[in-house]
Every structure is written in structure tokens, then in C-alpha cells.
Amino acid sequence: MSKHGTQISNIKRMRKMKENLQSYSLLLPNLILFIAFSIYPCIWTLKFIFYRYGGIGTPDPKFIGLDNIIRVFHDEIYWKTVRNTLIYAGAKIVLIIPLAFLLALFLNKQRKGNGLVQSVIFVPTIMSSAVMGLVFYLLFNVYNGQINRFLLDWNVIKQPINWLGTDHAMKTLVITAIWGGIGNYMVYFIAGLQRISEDTLESARIDGANRLQTLWYITVPMLGPILKIILMISITAAFNDMSNVMVLTEGGPDNSTMVMSLYGYQFFFSISPGSIVSKQYGYGAAVSAVSALIAGGITVFYLFVSKKLDDVY
Amino acid sequence: MGRFKRYGLGIGIGIFLCIMVVFTLYPIIYAVIGSFKTNSELTAGGSFFPQDGWHLENYWNAFIQADFAKYTWNSVFISISSMLIAVITSSLAGFVFARRDFVGKKLIMIFYVGLMFVALGSVTLYPIYNLLMALKLHKSVIGLILALTGGQASNVLLVMGFVKSIPKELDEAAIIDGCTIYGIFFKVIMPLIKPIMAVVALFTFRNSWNDYVTTLIMSISMPNLRTLTVAVVQLKYSINAAAEWHVMLAGASIAIIPILIVYFFANKQFIAGLTAGAVKG
Amino acid sequence: MRKRKLLAFLLSVALTATMMAGCGKSVDKSGDTPSTTESTDESKTDSEATGEKTKVVIWSKDRHDADLITSKVDAYNGNNTDNIEVDYQIYTENYEQAIDMAFQSGEAPDIIVHQTQIFQKYVNSGRWADYTPYMDDDFKATFGSVIIPGMNEIDGKVYYVPTTGTTGRLFYNKAIFEKAGIANPPATLEEMVEDARIITSKLSGEGIYGFAANMKSPGSALGRSLLYQVQRELGLSYGYDFAAGKYDFSGYEPVINSWKTLLSPECAFPGCESLDIDPLRTQFADGKIGMYISYTHAEPGVYKNQFPMKDEWGVVQIPVSDGNVKGAQSYIANGGYLFNAESKNLDAAWKAYRAIFTDIDYLAEYYEQGLGISIIPAVIEKAKPAQVYIDNADLLIGDTDAIWPLAPQEVNANAVLVEGMDMYATFGSMMLGDADIKSGLKDLTDRYNAALKAGIDEGTGTEIKIDSFNPKNPSK
């Protein structure tokens, strides 16, 4: 290669380097945050899966191999919380998606008042689920809750319903979760509906399709792609819900509303001052890692299935 | 016949919407009205409206005795700060990812996308606290703000998607005009991605304002830095004295109202933002 | 239009903020307003500025006595001649966690209000300072009776002295008992179940029920009731048999069965499984609950101040089967102060503590105001206790109460890591659900003994076995 050529390639390399540096200078602020608050905690968790540690004031962390993981698989309560989480997520999604879809369908049209109703339905999504958990406690408790009083006064029920008792607490939790989340999903659906052009619907109608037929043969299939995203978001969200459970039921009674995320949390921090679970960082890390695998696995499985469905249709 | 059916459907829809509106508003109105009741009236149940007068002093109690004035200021300061950090850092990073090729980009992208599927949840708070302690930030408001802002992978990807939809010719024209990468960002891209920046801003503000668990843990060693949300919920756990539900509800109302006002002015933006997020995926 | 306005607004906010950040270190300064006064830093600047004041930081978990204590602290700060300034901080929630974090980061305060778990957690690693070098004769004379080996005296070192005590008792509503035609409060467990049943069957139409417990958190509900009841009933503490040196829950069966009845619809206030203690108290104050079991130190104040009660309440010892008491009941010794061994101001801390918190007049005032039940003889002698203590002698710590040795998991919570549900959660599911009691208790015994053995093998736990252990006199 000639001298001239190396010079050019040197210049090129210099320029490349400069461009890299420039890129990184813009990326860096976020990258630092990302490494500190996303990557580092993951590495820490992965490491502590293999350790036993009870925090300061207790013996130093001790390497115990796979003991924590083995314990997770033998932990009956943990698997109960997995079942609870699946029930919670399943019920929430099954109820919230059709309701949100109906709301979107009815509110999508440019009619007077629709915008207002839309805004009202969206309000809960901007509120703290922890603060509202307190309010829901006042509404749902069995001895003086407003809900029971209302139902009794209107003779809907004869006996007060124990909304926060073992049998009903999960249902109550799902109701409050629907309250807090429905606005989000309604808006997603409206976004999807607005992407369907009026012309398509119009031509279907001209072809003699009635409302129900247009809905079923045109609107729903055309919503397909966005529905996939909505379901995906709802799955991840449902698996991460925690602060509403923490405030409303603290996972009780008798662990009937204990979800995976809260179960892992209690090995690091107390849920309430009355809790007597001792701190077990290693085991908590193992519980959280297995939970993350379960949640991630379900999401990936869903993506896989929805891809497959795409191929079929 | 057809007409009758149509009216029937209309009435059905109307009833459904009414039920949903009542379902949505009832808990909020109950909380606000409850904040004017006495503690014993609240805890003993009773009717929807206060029976023995409207107790405005609950708010006075909340603001003065329970220090809610301070917590409100904390909430405002912390939420706005974390909003600014999130907007600035995520739009810069989103821009770089969308427009530049650099060494290690693929690898970094894999982490950003991949970690969206790994939800370790609140467990990460413990290592984060330790990290802040090592950096001597655990006793300062900065640590709390940074922890609340977090890694923001999803915000970065959101901005990235938005930048990608802007025609590349604009950048190229700017390069010909002699703009550096910084010039391109500030002069060309930033004005165009304002909508998505507003989305990131609003959502970060909402999350910081409402966050309970992260703020709770990060403020344990500095109770003076608590936000409204944490302060309200913690009233439930007063160990020796009885819980003061009236003050708690007054606090809840104080926490609810500012975010409602923000929403009132920006509800179109909120909804547009969510839409952008969903469509871009 | 609106969109644009909002953007303009957001941008201007962003701009002002960046400008603020641009002006030197203003971010730090604006952060100062909400940030907590950093004790160490401040003491430094203080001493630099005036060159003399020594700052003593105290952390407390209590709010109920805050008025009295802060007034005493303020007076001391104004008067003391040693140039000591006491900074009294209250951490009601997450107290334990806050202390953990403070120790971890080396910023623990000089003095910490005693709490059993915290004390136990750190005592073995030498985090607490020993009182003995500081104790003068006067101090020994006043507090000698509450320095008890195994509790606050370990290997000859004294780490705190308690001044008040609390324990569990049965509280009942006299008017409800009268209305239901029951003459006396229950003296036996059988009577207690029967009374609860009578009240519920006669009065549930009026919304009045026989019994309640705050079972939302079984640990909180049973830790204030069943723990003491079993000490009296079986002579076991936390299921641990000190004579045999192992756990044995098999004897719990009759008590758990009685609780199951007490919490069933035929006796109990509806919704006990989701009840917190405060809602329970409001319902009791409202005359809806016949009886419940709780701590003696808290309830009198609650029904006087927080939830004023119309009906008259009474208090008796926790009933046991056939009234056959086999053991003394433990009590929680409160009002002690732990000293951080790493504190640089130990001398000043002791001076402040001695002047403020060991003053007999202060302790008498504390007792008279009903803030805590004194266990210091000199104070009891001097104080004129509130009328409520005179009327209800069972509120006081008496002959039937004693300090118990610590069960293994009390000594070190991490030495007995039980797989599966802990004892209270297990009891809770037996009482409220349909878990089989006999086999469940067998399983619980096995799991606790296995955990104990694992802890001992690990080196974290120690074997605790007391020959000739007498549950009626457990501290000997």
C-alpha cells in the first residue's frame, strides 16, 4: 500500500474514532443510568442466588451453590404465589381487554361528550395505586365498607360479603386492578381503531354488511397487530403489579393474594411493621430470578404463539 | 323495527358508559368527601356524606401537623427533576441509537431490548441502595431522583422509534451545512421530537409522583425526603398511636389533586403519548 | 393549540431548570431544603463554628410519648452546662430497616431506643456499648432490679435498662357482657369461648359480636395473644421447650381448636382475617366487639384519646384451659436506650441520657400520663398512677409476669430459617382455613427442629437447654 493510502486510512480511522466518541458522549448520560440501575442490579441478583446472606449484623455472605434454587422448587408457598399471580394476571387480562375494547368502540366516534367520558375513564391511570389501595380498603372492608352497605341497602345481598377475606380477596384485587388499568387499554384500542380508515368501513357497509358483521369481519381483524401489542403490555404489567397488593391486602389473608413479586420483596424489606419474615437476601434473589424467568418465559411464549398464528392466517 | 333496535342499542351503550363512569369516579369522590369526615366517623362506616359537619381542619392537620406541606414540595421537586433527567438523557440516547453507527452498538442494543423482558422487580432496590451508598448518594435527594429515574430502556426505545420516522435527508442537509452531531440534535432533531419528549416527560412525572415502593425504600434513611405518596401510605402504619384515616384521606386528596390538574391541562398529551407508545410498540 | 401551549410550558420549565443547574452548584442547594439535616455534617460545622457543642443524636420509634420527651429534650438543650445538644429524631415506620441501613453505611446515631429484634440482631457483633463503666451507685440502686442476666445483661455487660413494661391481656366491653347476661369476665378458656358464643348469638342482630382479632397479619395478632396464652397454658415460649431443648408444638392443639371456634362465625366479628388492629379498636370503641386480646401499654390511651369509648371496658388475664396456669407470662421491657459502641461521643451521650431519661421525676411523669407502665420500684413508689391503672390492676406488670429466656429464633432470627410457613402463618391458616391441626402441628415441630439443627450445624445458632427449667419462674 502506498504512503498516501495509509494516510487516508489513518484519517478515516481518526474520523471513525471521533464519530464514535461523539456518539458515546451523547449516549453516556443514559448509559450510566442504565448500567447503574438496570444492569448492575441484575448482576448483583445473579450473584446472590448462590449465596446465603441475612444482611448486616449476620454472618458474612456464604457461597452455598444451588441450595437457594433447590429451596425455591420445594417452597410450597412460592408455588402458591405463582398460581396466585397467574390467576391474577389471567383474570385481569380476560376482563380488562374486552371492557376496554367496548369502551374504545363506543367512545371512538366524534360525538359530543365522548371526549369527556374518555378523559374521565382515563383518570385512574394517573393515580397512585398505593394511595388508592388505602381508599379501596375503606370501600371494601366487611364491617363498614361502603360497598357492602350499598349492596345491603339495595337488597342485592342479605349478608355482608367478606370482600377482603380468603375467598374473595383475589376478586377484590382484580376489580381494583381493572379500575386502575382500564383507561390505558381503552386508549390503546382507540389508537388502533383510528388507524382503520373510514373508507374501509364505509365500503363494507355499502356491500351490505351490518354493524355486527363489520365489527367482526373488518374491525377486529384489522386490530390484530395492535391487539398483539396490547396483550403483550398487559401481560408484563400484570406480572409486575405489586404496590396495590402491598397496600390493600399485604398478600393476605393466608397468602391468598400473595403474588410472586411481593413474595420476593419480603425477603429484602418488610411489607408491614408486623411482618416477621427474616431477611434472606440470597433466597430472595433466587425467588426473584425464578419469577423473572417465569414471567419472561410466558411473554416469549406468547410472542412465539402470536407469530405462529400470523403464519397460519 | 330497525329504528327501535337502534335506540335500544344506544340506550344499552349509554347505560354501559354510565356504569363505567360511576365505577371510575366513585372511589375518588369517596376519598375526597371522606377527607372532610372525622376519624371516628370514617372508621365506624356511616353514610356517604359527612354527618357531623365538614371538617376542613383535616387539611390543616395534614399540612401542618403531618408535615404534608414539606412532602408536597418534595413530590414536586423530585418529580420535576426526574422528569428532566429522563427527557434529556433518553432523547439523546434515542437519537444516537436511531442515527449513528458506533462500536458496540449492537451489543448495547441487545441489553436495552433484552432487559425489557427481565423483570426482577423490586428486588433490585437492595443493590441499588447499596450502590447509592457506595457513591455517598443515599442521603441526598439526588440519589432518590436518580433511582426513581432509573435505566429507562423503554423511553430510549420510544424516542428511537420516533427519530427513525423522521426523514434522514434533514440530517444530511444539516451535515452539508457544516453541523456537528450536536448541532444536528439540537437544531434539527430536537424541535421535531418534542411530541415524544413531552410523552416521556409526562409519564416520568406521573411515575415519580405516584411511585410508592422505590421512594419508600430510598427514603427510609431520610424520612424528610419522603414524597406525598409514601407519607400518606405510611400514616397507616403508625405503630403506637391509632391510624388517622381522616388525615390519611386528606393527604390522599392532596396527592390526587395536583396530578389531576396536570392531567386536566395535558390529557390530550397523555392519551396521544400512550397511543404513540402502543403504535410504535 | 393546547398541545403547543403545553410544550411551551414544559420547555420553559426545562429551560429554567437547566439554567438553575448551570449556575454553579445550585442543584445541591435546592436539594438541601427537603433533605434531612445530616447529623454528622452538621455537628462538624457546629463544632467548627462555635468550637464547643457536642451533638448527641437519638433515634426513637415512638410517637405517643414524643410531646413529653421533646419538651424534656428542649429543656435539657437549653440548660445543660456541658455544651451538649441532643437531636431527638423519630422514625416510627421502618425503624428496624432504618437502623440496618444506618449501621451498614456507618452513620448510626449515638443512642437508639431499644427494640428487642434490633438489640438481638446486633448484640453479638459488638455494636452496643456496655453500660457498666458508666453506672454509678445511684444508678445501680434505682435500676438494679431490672438488670436481668440473659435479657439486658450478657456476660456481665449491661446494654440497656428498661423502664416500662407491656404484655398481652384480655380486654372486654362491660356493657356488652351485661347486655348478654354474663356476670363476670371469662376466667377460663372454655368460658371465653362460651361467652363469645353467647354474645354473638344474642346480639349479632345489633351488629355486636363476641370476639375479634387483627388476623390480617397473624404475626401481629397472635404475637400479642397466643404467645402469652401458651406461656401460661403450656409453659412454652414460641413453641420452644427449654427443658428439652427443642421445639414441640403438639400441645398447641386444644388452644388452636378454641381459637378456631373463637374466629368462626358463631363467635367472631366478621372479617377478622382482613382486620388491622386500628379498625378493630374503632369497632371495639364503638361497642361492636365483646372482647379481644392486646397490649396493656397501648389500649388505655387509645380509648381515651384516639377513639373515645362510650362503654366501660375492663381487663383480665388471658384465660387458659380450666384456668390451670402452668407458666408465668413474659412481658416486653420497653423504655431502654441502646448506645452505639462506635459513637465518638459516648461520654456526652451518657451524660445526656442520665440527665434526661433516668430522672425519677421524668419517669414518674411518664407513668402518670399513662404513656407506659413503670417497672421501676422507685418510680412506682413515687408516682400517682392514672386512675385507669388503679381501677384495672391487671394492666400492670405483676406477679404472674416474668422475663423469659429467649427462644432460639429470638436470639438470632437467621439461625432458625424455617422452610415453608412460619408458626404464626401456619396457625393462621389452621384457625381461619381448614388445614388439619394435628398433622400440621407435627409438621411444624419437625420443620422448626430441622431449621434449628441446620442453624446449629451452620454455626449461626446455639443450643439452648435449661435443666430444671421452671416455666412459673422462667428467669431463674
Describe the model:
The complex is a heterotrimer of chains A (313), B (281) and C (476). Chain A is mostly helical and 313 residues long. Chain A is 72% helix and 1% strand. Chain A has 12 helices and 2 strands. The relative contact order of chain A is 0.12. The mean pLDDT of chain B is 85. Chain B contains 14 helices and no strands. Helices cover 73% and strands 0% of the residues of chain B. Chain B has helices at 2-34, 39-43, 57-65, 68-99, 105-114, 125-134, 141-149, 153-164, 169-176, 181-192, 194-210, 213-218, 228-234, 245-280. In chain C, helix 9 (189-203) packs parallel to helix 12 (253-262) and helix 12 packs across helix 20 (423-432). Chain C has 2 domains: 53-161 and 333-390, Periplasmic binding protein-like II (D-Maltodextrin-Binding Protein, domain 2, 3-Layer(aba) Sandwich); 167-331 and 404-458, D-Maltodextrin-Binding Protein, domain 2, CATH 3.40.190.10. Chain C is built from 21 helices and 17 strands. Classes of the chains: A mainly alpha (313), B mainly alpha (281), C alpha/beta (476). At the A-B interface, helix 1, helix 3, helix 4, helix 5 and helix 7 of A face helix 1, helix 4, helix 5, helix 6 and helix 7 of B. Chain C: Pfam families: SBP_bac_1 (PF01547). Chain C: Keywords: Signal, Sugar transport, Transport. Chain C: InterPro entries: Bact_solute-bd_prot1 (IPR050490), SBP (IPR006059). Chain C: It comes from Mobilisporobacter senegalensis.
